[in-house]
Amino acid sequence: MPKVAPIDQRKADHIKINLEQDVRSALTTGLEKYHFVHEALPELDLNRVNTTLSLFGKTLNAPILISSMTGGTEEAGEINQRLAEAAQEVGVAMGVGSQRAALENPKETPTFSIARKVAPDILLFANLGAVQLNYGYSVDECRRAVDMIQADALCLHLNPLQEAVQDAGDTNFEGLAKKIEEVCRKLEVPVIAKEVGWGISERTAKLLADCGVQAIDVAGAGGTSWSQVEMHRAPDEFTRQLAATFVGWGIPTAESILNVKKAVPEMTIFASGGLKDGLDIAKCIALGATLGGMAGNFLKAAAVSTEKAVEMMKLTKRQIEVTMFACGAERIRELENGKLVEKPSDEDFQKALEYVLEKNKELYKRLANL
Ligand SMILES: Cc1cc2nc3c(=O)[nH]c(=O)nc-3n(C[C@H](O)[C@H](O)[C@H](O)COP(=O)(O)O)c2cc1C
């Protein structure tokens, strides 16, 4: 058996646990509260519905992002290869997982750089944990990560809760904003800040905008829960119970998008966290996002084959097209024009019902007195 270094072991555990265990958050994304207004006469030709967009100098065939996941082990390299081949074929964006493993052990570089090798044209994102800027990393490591895969942008992930519930996590997040700001100023490509599944508050959005990030991936609650993943790999009962506490933690994806939109209206938003299909991605775009990302779902497809990943991406793209067709949007940005409505909550519905019953009573009284 080859000797596995601790970061690699962690990466291998993450893939295995995500594929084999139920690691969903106890929360929902909040997207189920919204629906598109159906148009029976959309006055559109489905074949002319256009999902293309331009971002950071690249053209995408659909607003779909394969969220940052993996690299660092042989299996992870194979998954990156399949995801990238599929992204190239369908014309969608992709992020690789944290590249720390390869920065510390250059032999692992090919498990990440394979993505660019097989996908020369895609919008590709490098990835590092922002907290590493408090543990010896600087703009140099960020640049090396970008160069390693010829990335178009760098994702700095923010995962304080994951670090806090894992054994020996990197938990010093003090003074990080200033360091993120320095990376944004000095790096040659755009910096994207992303959560990993607990969402973004208005305060965090403002802070990140002040740092100079060019996009925020909200990675909200409602999908993969990293405290659940850490619970499954906890070395003892204490750590297991600590991680289990947070199954219902975080800001749901829909709310996170609205938080960023409110706090920094001009910010480019990527939506992820629990999105299950193209309809969910379309809802996120209608709420103000530019791309919709999925991690767990694409991982499961790529674990089977490149063909399975292509099939899933094509289905996701088609789901977006049909959604646009049925609500009368020919171009992707038209989804934002009031096509999404919020379903009344049960409480609102109850109030409306009581109001109608009251009005009816008054009406009958008046009729009786006629
Ligand atoms: C197996 C796996 C590994 C991940 N590794 C990373 C990572 O290295 N860096 C990162 O920024 N996010 C990582 N994520 C988080 C995802 O990018 C995403 O933000 C999160 O899983 C929520 O999306 P989902 O609900 O569609 O899974 C990982 C997710 C999965 C499933």
SSE arrangement:
Blueprint (H helix, E strand, L loop, with lengths): L5 H15 L13 E3 L16 E3 L2 E3 L3 E3 L7 H17 L2 E3 L4 H5 L5 H9 L5 E6 L9 H11 L3 E5 L2 H6 L10 H11 L4 E4 L7 H10 L3 E3 L8 H7 L4 H8 L8 H11 L4 E5 L5 H10 L3 E4 L1 H9 L1 H21 L13 E3 L3 H23 L2
Parallel strand pairs: 4-5, 4-11, 5-6, 6-7, 7-8, 8-9, 9-10, 10-11
Antiparallel strand pairs: 1-12, 2-3
Question: Can you give a write-up of this model?
Answer:
The protein contains 15 helices and 12 strands. 47% of the residues lie in helices and 12% in strands. Strand 8 (191-194), helix 8 (202-211) and strand 9 form a beta-alpha-beta unit. It is globular. With 370 residues, it is α/β, with parallel strands linked by helices. It has one domain (6-341): TIM Barrel, CATH 3.20.20. The strands form 3 sheets. The protein has an 8-stranded parallel beta barrel with strand order 4-5-6-7-8-9-10-11, surrounded by 8 helices. The protein has a two-stranded antiparallel ribbon with strand order 1-12. The chain starts with 5 loop residues before the first helix and ends with a helix. The mean pLDDT is 95. Residues 14-15, 18, 67-70, 97-98, 127, 155, 157, 194, 196-197, 219, 223-224, 272-275, 294-296, 299 line the site of flavin mononucleotide.
